[in-house]
């Protein structure tokens, strides 16, 4: 049981390049999330998907797009990377309806935009 | 005012000490509260949920004060391995489940 798998672990981009961060969970969870974490800022929500086929903006959506490809996969795309997007990105999932709500996280992607 | 606020610390304590962290939240309608632990920018992991009646798990005690809109985490008999960042998480009320994180409190336990 892999849980939440997030790729890549590290990425360096030049300003203006594009890339997609991949996230997949094998726990049949309904809701999935993308967060970014900057030093001293905690985790800030970029986008979330409450269920397959739906996506919504979080606190810091500008410069990002997402796709909930199916129940398992939720990808994050940077169309034109900027240095301000240098951060650590975490994907997470949760199964709504459980009485003990617990977020499961991927291991993170460290992204540097030069 | 941020939705979830924490003192970033660091809290620097000797082994065996008792240490407490508070976290305040702005939305009085919030329903779910949690403490997560994060080591060295690895992924956060659930430490414990916070229930209205308070709850204890070994050396860790979590409490909720709805009137003052804060939750607390008490760690007794601190171990070196407790050194980490402790993240307060509050579920934003509404139709969807939206976990909102505080910026975290850094704990350093020294010999």
Written description of the protein model:
With 114 residues, chain A is mainly β. Helices cover 0% and strands 51% of the residues of chain A. In chain A, strands 2, 4, 5, 6, 9, 10 and 11 form a 7-stranded mixed beta sheet that branches. Chain A has a 4-stranded antiparallel beta sheet with strand order 1-3-8-7, with no helix packed on it. The radius of gyration of chain A is 13 Å and the shape is globular. In chain A, 35% of the residues are buried. The mean pLDDT of chain B is 93. Chain B has no helices and 11 strands. The relative contact order of chain B is 0.34. With 111 residues, chain B is mostly beta strands. In chain B, the strands form 2 sheets. In chain B, strands 2, 4, 5, 9, 10 and 11 form a 6-stranded mixed beta sheet that branches. The A-B interface holds A 31, 33, 35, 37, 40-45, 48, 50, 56, 58, 88, 90, 92, 94, 96, 100-103, 105-108 and B 4, 6, 8, 32, 34, 36, 41-46, 49, 87, 89, 91, 95-104.
- Uncertain segments of chain B of ≥5 residues (pLDDT<50)? none
Counting helices, strands and paired strands, the structural category of chain A is: mainly beta
Helix and strand succession of chain B? Answer: EEEEEEEEEEE
Q: Quote the distance from N terminus to C terminus of chain B.
A: 37 Å
> Helical region count of chain A?
0
User: Which residues of chain A sit in consecutive blocks of at least 5 with pLDDT less than 50?
Assistant: none
Sketch the topology of chain A as an H/E string, one letter per element: EEEEEEEEEEE
Helix percentage of chain A: under 10%
Name the assembly state.
heterodimer
Give me the Rg of chain B, rounded. 14 Å
List the helices and strands and how they pair.
The complex is a heterodimer of chains A (114) and B (111).
Chain A: E1 4-7, E2 10-13, E3 19-25, E4 31-38, E5 42-49, E6 56-57, E7 64-68, E8 74-78, E9 87-94, E10 104-105, E11 109-113
Parallel strand pairs in A: 2-11
Antiparallel strand pairs in A: 1-3, 3-8, 4-5, 4-9, 5-6, 7-8, 9-10, 9-11
Chain B: E1 4-6, E2 11-14, E3 19-25, E4 33-38, E5 45-50, E6 55-57, E7 60-65, E8 70-75, E9 84-92, E10 98-101, E11 105-110
Parallel strand pairs in B: 2-11
Antiparallel strand pairs in B: 1-3, 3-8, 4-5, 4-9, 6-7, 7-8, 9-10, 9-11
